[in-house]
């Protein structure tokens, strides 16, 4: 071995590691001196290569040094192997890098395709949402246009109405100015009329007082006349009232009602004595021989308010008042009278304006006191309304001390006064309080017949009477 060969073997060994992927390689390379290969050359150590790769400059220097020195066969073999391995390593590294780049590129392409697909989905959603928003905006625009048109129409209508209102206001102001003077004149005329009315009312009140005095005087005269007529009738019927008088049988002129009197030839209205039922004493009654053919036995009569009809059960049972004037014959006498056969009922009514009306029932019957003197009616006709104001289905008689009405929580005789066949306070009460003219309006407790003058008009006169149905 020569001297320069020895210097070549004095190299500094260094471990160089080249790694890529799953493979790693280790090379032992000689550390050359800086002079290029002479005897007694100084050995120098290089610094570690950067990133584990050979640089092109060091390879050139190594080739130059090996060519200038006389190498033995092993050196040449090592040199050739080293070159082949370096070239293979470089080719393998390039191949690995290329595969890695391809793999990275493939991954990037796959990721890019996925991102592109997602972006397409998002873009489609955005487009759909944008389309819906555009459609909604279009609908809103159409609605807005429609509302604007309606608003314009309403505005024009309001303007038209304002103009019309202005015209009307001007007309009203003109009429107010025209009628203001007329109103003042009317007020003055009203005050004058009020003074005249007050004067007339005072005169009417004075006339009413005079009328009451005249009525009382007339009542006294009527009573005197009744007493005279009674005396005359007593004198005429004296032979009939004494059974032991010669040639005069006891029952030859014992009339049972006014129809019987009429049939006997007496056709003048007035007082008569009749025998009712099993009574041995005669009953004095007023007979109407003129109305609707006559023969009527009167059991209720009112025309001047001289008799108080605010009585109890006992007085309505036995009767009260003046037979020739205002009176109530009595429920017991009426019951016995109607029990003699089939009777009809007639009610005569007259208001304060001179109008008269009547209500007639073909069948009239009355029960006894135990059955509360219930009244039953059939066959209504007349001019005092299209239907009956008196209940026809068997209503009991009621007074303030004997309540038999059909009102569950009230007493009609106390509220409406008098004694009557109250149903549930009903449409009629001919035994209410007597009110004179001018005070007879809006009186619920007066003398009323609903279907003739209404529920709050108090009548001037009434008369109730019965006669046989076959008269």
Automatic annotation (TrEMBL):
<dbReference type="InterPro" id="IPR036056">
    <property type="entry name" value="Fibrinogen-like_C"/>
</dbReference>
<dbReference type="InterPro" id="IPR057439">
    <property type="entry name" value="ANG-1/2/4"/>
</dbReference>
<feature type="signal peptide">
    <location>
        <begin position="1"/>
        <end position="23"/>
    </location>
</feature>
<keyword id="KW-1015">Disulfide bond</keyword>
<keyword id="KW-0325">Glycoprotein</keyword>
<dbReference type="Pfam" id="PF25443">
    <property type="entry name" value="ANG-1"/>
</dbReference>
<dbReference type="InterPro" id="IPR020837">
    <property type="entry name" value="Fibrinogen_CS"/>
</dbReference>
<keyword id="KW-0037">Angiogenesis</keyword>
<dbReference type="GO" id="GO:0001525">
    <property type="term" value="P:angiogenesis"/>
</dbReference>
<keyword id="KW-0732">Signal</keyword>
<dbReference type="InterPro" id="IPR014716">
    <property type="entry name" value="Fibrinogen_a/b/g_C_1"/>
</dbReference>
<dbReference type="InterPro" id="IPR002181">
    <property type="entry name" value="Fibrinogen_a/b/g_C_dom"/>
</dbReference>
<dbReference type="GO" id="GO:0005615">
    <property type="term" value="C:extracellular space"/>
</dbReference>
<keyword id="KW-0175">Coiled coil</keyword>
<dbReference type="Pfam" id="PF00147">
    <property type="entry name" value="Fibrinogen_C"/>
</dbReference>
<feature type="coiled-coil region">
    <location>
        <begin position="144"/>
        <end position="224"/>
    </location>
</feature>
<dbReference type="InterPro" id="IPR050373">
    <property type="entry name" value="Fibrinogen_C-term_domain"/>
</dbReference>
<protein>
    <submittedName>
        <fullName>Angiopoietin 4</fullName>
    </submittedName>
</protein>
<feature type="domain" description="Fibrinogen C-terminal">
    <location>
        <begin position="249"/>
        <end position="470"/>
    </location>
</feature>
């Amino acid at each position: 071995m020569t001297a320069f060969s020895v210097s070549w073997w004095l190299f500094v060994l260094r471990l160089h590691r080249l790694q890529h992927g799953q493979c790693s390689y280790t090379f032992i390379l000689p550390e050359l001196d800086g002079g290029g290969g002479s005897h007694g050359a100084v050995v120098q150590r290089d610094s570690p290569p950067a990133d584990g790769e050979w640089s092109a400059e060091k390879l050139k220097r190594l080739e130059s040094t090996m060519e200038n020195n006389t190498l033995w066969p092993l050196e040449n073999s090592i040199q050739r192997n080293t070159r082949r391995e370096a070239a293979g390593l470089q080719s393998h590294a390039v191949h690995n890098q290329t595969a890695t780049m391809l793999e990275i590129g493939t991954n990037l392409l796959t990721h890019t395709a996925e991102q592109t697909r997602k972006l397409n989905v998002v873009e489609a959603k955005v487009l759909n949402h944008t389309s819906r928003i555009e459609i909604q905006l279009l609908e809103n625009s159409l609605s807005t246009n429609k509302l604007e048109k309606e608003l314009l129409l309403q505005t024009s209508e309001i303007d038209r109405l304002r103009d019309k209102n202005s015209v009307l206001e001007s007309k009203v102001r003109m009429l107010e100015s025209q009628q203001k003077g007329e109103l003042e004149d009317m007020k003055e005329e009203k005050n004058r009329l009020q003074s005249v009315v007050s004067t007339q009312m005072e005169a009417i009140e004075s006339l009413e007082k005079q009328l009451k005095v005249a009525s009382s005087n007339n009542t006294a005269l009527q009573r005197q006349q009744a007493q005279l007529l009674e005396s005359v009738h007593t004198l005429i019927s004296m032979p009939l009232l004494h059974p032991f008088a010669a040639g005069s049988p006891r029952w030859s002129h014992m009339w049972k009602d006014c129809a019987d009197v009429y049939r006997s030839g007496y056709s003048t209205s007035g007082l008569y004595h009749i025998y009712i039922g099993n009574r041995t004493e005669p009953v004095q009654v007023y007979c109407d021989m003129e109305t609707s053919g006559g023969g009527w036995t009167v059991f209720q009569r009112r025309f001047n308010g001289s008799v108080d009809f605010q009585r109890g059960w006992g007085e309505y049972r036995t009767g009260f008042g003046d037979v020739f004037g205002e009176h109530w014959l009595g429920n017991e006498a009426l019951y016995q009278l109607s029990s003699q056969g089939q009777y009809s009922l007639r009610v005569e009514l007259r208001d304060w304006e001179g109008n008269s009306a009547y209500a007639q029932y073909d069948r009239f019957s009355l029960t006894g006191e135990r059955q509360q003197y219930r009244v039953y009616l059939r066959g209504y006709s007349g001019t005092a309304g299209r239907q009956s104001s008196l209940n026809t289905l068997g209503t009991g008689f009621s007074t303030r001390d004997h309540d038999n009405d059909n009102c569950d929580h009230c007493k009609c005789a106390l509220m409406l006064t008098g004694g009557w066949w109250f149903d549930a306070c009903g449409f009629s009460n001919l035994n209410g309080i007597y009110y004179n003219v001018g005070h007879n309006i809006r009186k619920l407790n007066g003398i009323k017949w609903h279907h003739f003058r209404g529920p709050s008009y108090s009548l001037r006169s009434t008369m109730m009477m019965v006669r046989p149905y076959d008269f």
